[in-house]
Write a structure and sequence with these properties.
The protein has three domains: 5-27 and 232-255; 45-223, Rossmann fold (3-Layer(aba) Sandwich), CATH 3.40.50; 273-371, no CATH class. The chain is 42% helix and 15% strand. It contains eleven helices and eleven strands. It has helices spanning 4-26, 46-54, 85-96, 197-204, 218-221, 235-255, 268-286, 290-309, 317-322, 333-348, 354-371, and strands at residues 59-62, 72-77, 100-104, 116-118, 131-135, 138-142, 148-150, 157-162, 165-173, 176-181, 212-216. Helix 8 runs parallel beside helix 11. The longest helix has 23 residues, at 4-26. The radius of gyration is 47 Å and the shape is rod-shaped. The two termini are 52 Å apart. This is DUF4350 domain-containing protein. The chain crosses the membrane at residues 235-253. It comes from Gracilibacillus salitolerans.
Length: 372
């Protein structure tokens, strides 16, 4: 299929492409998942973390479940809804011990017994637009992204609301409290300094009253949600995979390639008549049904003679061929008489051998060609 030289050249090019791919991918910028503290990307939290650290706050990040300390502020940004109820119960016990958790999530329905409802107002168009939110009588200009609003209880303290409903609330649980914010994007590097987002965040989160501020990354790292589909294996493995697919396609294409001329399909009428006659002839020959085959040929010859000369079916072969005398060019009248006598003889017999069959088939074909 391929020559030895072709294989060698292909392998060299294949290895060269792998080397180039490894060196080219090693210089690509590092990809950061959203809401990570060390991420400088627009979706990261490095800006607010660095600000708190530079201004004397005791700030840190943790990727483990919280320990039962007191008077700490723990920030959870866009965590998943925990499938393991024991994890959620652990966070609730942490709050009851006198700590504060800030939950920033666009739709926290089902998490920590929270409920939300969808709302559609003029604010939510195809493109986000700013709106005015109220914080204890103070009007703040913000950019909403969430299409839900919190369902509040009588004991909840609404911290921030707009014309669509509650955007942030505080709920006391035991000795601590749970602060819920529907806008995690306000904490990101891209949006924290836009509009009045910074002021809103510092109004909602009790940084001053907390001894320690912790950014919780356990819910992100432990859930496996930060692992990219292309980060499961090293880059060279994906290069090999792609190259293998390409080589397989070329091999299959080469094996399935058709060489030589393409013959046009014969007309349907030609295919039907010729193929049917050949099939019947092969069947008769293999089954040694020579006498039956001769009878079929004679019946067909009768029909051809009737159509050409108007000689009826009920005439004998002697009468039929006698009326054809002078109308054939290559068959004499004497020969027609011998053929007629022979046809009546073989018609009265019950079987024929192969030699007789071939001989009489040739004679019948000769008459048919003259008539047609």
């Amino acid at each position: 299929m391929f020559g030895k030289k072709t294989w060698i050249i292909g392998i060299i090019l294949f290895l060269l492409l792998i080397v180039v791919s490894i060196f080219s991918t090693s210089n690509t910028p590092e990809q950061y998942p959203a809401y990570l503290v060390e991420s400088p990307s627009p979706t990261g939290l490095k800006a607010i973390y660095t600000y708190l650290d530079k201004n004397g706050y005791d700030v840190s990040k943790e990727d483990t479940l919280p320990t039962m300390t007191k008077e700490t502020l723990r920030i959870l940004v866009n965590p998943p809804v925990f499938t393991d109820q024991t994890i959620e119960n652990h966070y609730l016990d942490y709050i009851r011990e006198g700590n504060t958790i800030v939950l920033a999530k666009e739709n926290p329905d089902g998490l920590f017994n929270l409920e939300t409802e969808y709302t559609m107002t003029e604010t939510f168009n195809s493109e986000p637009q700013t709106t005015e939110a109220d914080y204890q009588g103070e009007t703040l200009k913000v950019l909403p992204n969430s299409f839900v609003r919190l369902v509040t209880n009588d004991d909840d303290n609404v911290l921030l609301e707009d014309n669509a409903g509650a955007v942030a609330i505080e709920r006391e649980i035991g000795e601590g409290s749970l602060i819920v914010l529907l806008e995690p994007a306000w904490l990101t590097n891209e949006h924290i300094t836009e509009y009045d987002h910074t002021q809103a965040l510092f109004n909602l989160m009790p940084f001053e009253e907390s001894e320690k501020v912790i950014f919780d990354e356990y819910s992100l790292t432990a859930s496996g949600g930060l692992v990219s589909h292309f980060g499961l294996y090293p880059g060279w493995a994906y290069v090999l995979l792609v190259q293998g697919i390409i080589i397989t396609i070329f091999i299959l294409w080469n094996q399935g390639k058709r060489f030589g001329p393409i013959y046009p399909v014969r007309e349907e009428t030609v295919r039907l008549s010729n193929e049917r006659l050949r099939a019947i002839a092969i069947w008769q020959t293999k089954g040694k049904n020579y006498h039956t085959s001769i009878e079929y040929q004679l019946e067909y010859l009768k029909e051809v003679i009737r159509q050409q000369y108007g000689i009826p079916y009920h005439h004998s072969w002697k009468e039929r061929l006698a009326r054809m005398e002078g109308k054939t060019e290559t068959i004499s009248a004497k020969e027609l008489g011998h053929i007629a006598q022979g046809i009546e003889t073989i018609s009265s017999r019950k079987s024929l051998n192969k030699q007789e069959y071939l001989s009489w088939s040739a004679k019948i074909d000769k008459i048919r060609e003259e008539v047609e």
